[in-house]
Every structure is written in C-alpha cells, then in structure tokens.
Amino acid sequence: MYRQLLLIALLTPLFPLAADADEPAGPPARHLRILAVGNSFSRNAGMYLADIAQADGNRVTLFQAAPGGCTLERHWNCAVRFEADPDDAEGRPYGGKSLRQVLAAEPWNFVTIQQRSMDSFGPETYHPYARLLHDYIKKHAPQAEVVVHQTWAYRADDPLFDSPDFQVQDMHRGLTAAYEAISRELGCRLLPVGAAFENARLSDRWPDRFPDPDFDPASTQPPSLPDQRHSLHVGYRWAKQDDGEFRLRYDGHHANAAGCYLGSAVWYEVFFGRSVIGNRFVPAGLDAPQVALLQQIAHQTVTEKCRPATAPERSEK
Length: 317
Prior knowledge:
Order of helices and strands: HHEHHEHHEHEHEHEEHH
Shape: globular
Strand order of the largest sheet: 2-1-3-4-5
Helix content: 25-40%
Strand content: 5-15%
Structural class: alpha/beta
Radius of gyration: 23 Å
Distance between the termini: 51 Å
Number of helices: 11
Number of strands: 7
C-alpha cells in the first residue's frame, strides 16, 4: 500500500505538464520600435500604445519627434537646416536632436508621418514635403516601414464649424481624401485613426451629442458642463486662474482619454497585426464597457481600412 501511494505521489505532477503540452502556444512576444514624426496629435494617438502592448505580452519603444503644431513643411525644413549646419539649433527640434540623429538612434520598425490637423484637409499642403520626408527617412532608416498617420476631425461644436458651409463631416471628408491620396502616392499604409473617430461619431453605440443645445458656454457657471461622456476630444473644462477664479476653457482639437485610447488601439492593431478586442488595459478615466466598445470600433476600422503588413516582423525582446 505504501509503495502504491508513493508511486501516485511521484506521478501526479506529470499530468498537468502533459495537458499543457497539448494546448496551442500563444504568439511570441514582440518588441517593436516606432518613431512618430508628428506633433501633439501623434502624442495623443500613441499615448496608451505601450500599455496596450504590455497587456498583450509585447513591448514598444516609442519616440515622439513631435513639436506642438508641427507641419510636414516644418519637419522637412528642420532636416534641411541640420544638413546645412549641424550646429544650428533650428535643425535639432526633437529634444536637441535632428531627424537624422533620431533616425540613427534605434533600428526602427516603423516611422510615422502626418500633417498638422489645421492643414490636414488641404491636399496641397502635403506637397512636396511628404515625399521629401519619406525619401529622407528611407535613406537614413532603410529597414523601417514608413506609415502615414491619418489624424482626425475636430469636435462638431468646435468654432471652426461656425459656418454652415464647413462642418465636421466636411473636414473629415477632406482630410480622408488628402491622407488616402498621399498614402497611395508614397506607397505607404495608412493608420486610420481619423476613420475610427468618425466611425465612433456616427455609431449609435457611442452617441455623439455635440453641440449640446442645452448648454450655453456664455452664461454657464462652474462647475456646470455639458454631457461629454461620449466625447473623444477634450471639450469643455473649468480652469482655475491665478486670481482664484475659474474660467471655462474649450479644446475641440485634441483627444481626451477615450480618444487617445481609440487612437492607440488603432496603432496597436496596425503595427502588431493583432486584434485589440479583449485587451485588459483600461486607462484612468475610462471603464471596462467604454474600453470594450472602443476596441470594437478600432478593430472594425482597421479590418475595413488596412492591408497586411509589409515590414518584416521582429520577435526580439
């Protein structure tokens, strides 16, 4: 009897190992290096990329070459200034580094380029700078895939849309046409963040109620604000002034936590080629149901808009 019990005890640990061997192994962990040549909109869209990747067992090195409000033209002009004089501070706008120096700093898998949001719906603003930047990047980081980051339209109650002749849907159509045209011209894939914002705006599951007819910014008093639960933009907020008074501020351009998460979810799906649905990372300020819905919108957008990756995969940690 004692010998039988001893034999059972010795064999018991083997059974779970045998069962695990029959389970399919998950994809190998990947470490992607991404350089964003952009501005505050690329900082918004990449905000949670590393967190989403980590929650899926992956890793991201992301560098933002992203001065505020930077256009394609300014990025190019800075590169030209550096080539003419490496000591010229105007040619080194990325934390004291030039674009050439940043391109040499890592074996980048991807480099993104984008236009300033205010110019995004003007196709003429992309030329010749998008092509010049693309070729410069490929010269100094030939292993990297250049990807065009499609930015998004402003919130529907933004002052840009005060005229009935130009509304949010007009901005979206214009920037979509411009980004798709330059993407085709360069032979680059598109990061369809702007499309994801528009899909959310039009979705019954993420009801966009802007402008709010019951909110008058001219007469409101703190802490009153419109219902912004389904905003993807910063929107209205009360800011305390130096004199102790609160002043109503508005930002219909930049993404809030929900918008940043949606953008990062699109980036993750495109760069890693994996669905974001079910990812466990939840940013502060959002809840799990909101995140689940944004994941579905991101996944649907990427599925409809993107073609397979062309860059070789890297699995090193």
